[in-house]
Amino acid sequence: MPNLLRSLNLSCFVLIASSIFAQKHTRITRSNEHAEIIQYTTRPCYSRAIIVEGDKVYLGNSNGGLIVYDLITKESKDLMESKNFQEMRDIALCNGSLIGMQSGTDGLLVKTDKEKFEHFIHIKGNHWIGAFLDGMDFYGSTGFMMGDPVNGYFKLFKTTDCGNTWTPCEGKMEAIEGEAGFAASGTNVQVLNDSTFMFVTGGTVSRFIRSTDGGKTWNATSIPMHSGKGSGAFSFHFINALEGIVVGGDYESPNLNLNNSYYTNDGGEFWTNSKKQVLGYRSCVIVVNGIAYACGTTGIDFSKDNGNTWEPFAFGNYFALASDGKKLYATIPNGSFQRFNLLN
Asked: How many helices (H) and strands (E) does the chain have?
């Protein structure tokens, strides 16, 4: 009888614990079925680049176009549909201007006023002929842009006038054979301040590479992610000079959970594997109100402890994330994005 009582007590404890876990899990998981879906274009495209500012959503699309969606009027405006642009891989806002970046055989930028969209300037640089551009970021009028290696060295550029003119960074960074960047959401680069430029790589190796002197010298540290042609670090975000999060995986095997997320507390000198991983390949990570969100082709996860543990937020196919501090915006296929309520 005592053994039976112990078994019954243990069973009750397991059931209660399971119930509490299930309730907690249900409470923190968001269903994409309840998130508003907004179709911003009927053209067959999707967006890897999204910015939300005020009541406007700016989107760079797979068909080479730029679109602005008005959250108040619920109307879209095609800013540019250019045959010269194969795919808009990244966009940025800088001092009243909207900048779009194309990857491909030769990098190409376009710039226009973010309000009137009257004049488009095509920015072509001899420096990035033959370069596949991966991402750009700005801090004030200072910007940094990186591209895949050419002749064994990464293509690294900087600007101090919001992208009107670009110059190669003074310091060179040698790439390991088979190493490159991933132009998945424009978030594999970050400008932390006017002299700190950072980017992450993948492929045969994954590395975090940083310059603290405006691109004159570079320092690289290893991120122990799974290596492969379509594997590695895809996106990262530093909350401050010391705390950062990186996500990635294998886009050819999106359900593979194999060391897809890491975090650092020492400025990137050492990267720690997340105790509880994201649920598959992730192409974009952002931090909003102290909470990290990471998305990919199998869903969205969130972390309240700077990347140490992750929980599911929504399920579906997502490309890129943005936020206005009140809502989370996630791009999805078929010219659409979803709008979620943020966690507290």
From this structure: 1, 30
Compute CA distances 85 → 64, 80, 344, whole Å.
5, 10, 40
- The total number of residues shown for the chain amounts to 344
Gap between the Cα atoms of 199 and 184, Å rounded: 13
Sequence ranges of the domains in the chain: 1-30, 33-341
Residue 317's Cβ-count burial label (10 Å; 0-12, 13-18, 19+) is middle
The domain 33-341 is placed in CATH, from the list 3.40.50.300, 1.10.10.10, 2.130.10.10, 3.40.50.2300, at: 2.130.10.10
- Order of strands, sheet of 219-222, starting from the edge strand that comes earlier in the sequence: 189-193, 196-200, 207-211, 219-222
* 116 pLDDT above the threshold of 80: no
| Choice among 32-41, 122-131, 178-187, 197-206 with the minimum mean pLDDT | 122-131
Angle CA(159)–CA(164)–CA(168) in degrees, nearest 5? 35
> What digits encode the pLDDT tens for the residues 13-33?
333 333 333 333 334 455 666
Give the separation between CA 181 and CA 108, rounded to whole angstroms: 17
Q: In what order do the strands lie in the sheet with 133-139?
A: 133-139, 142-150, 153-159, 167-168
CB atoms near residue 187 (< 10 Å): 24
Spatial contact of 322 and 273, defined as CB atoms under 8 Å apart = no
**Residue 243 CB burial class (10 angstroms; 0-12, 13-18, ≥19):** middle
Report how far residue 41's alpha carbon sits from residue 59's, in angstroms, rounded to the nearest whole number.
10
- Cβ neighbours of residue 169 closer than 8 Å, sequence gap 6 or more: 144, 156, 157, 158, 197, 211, 214, 215, 216
- Tell me, what amino acid is at 135? G
- What does the pLDDT read at residue 1? 38
> Do residues 275 and 309 touch, judged by C-beta distance below 8 A?
yes
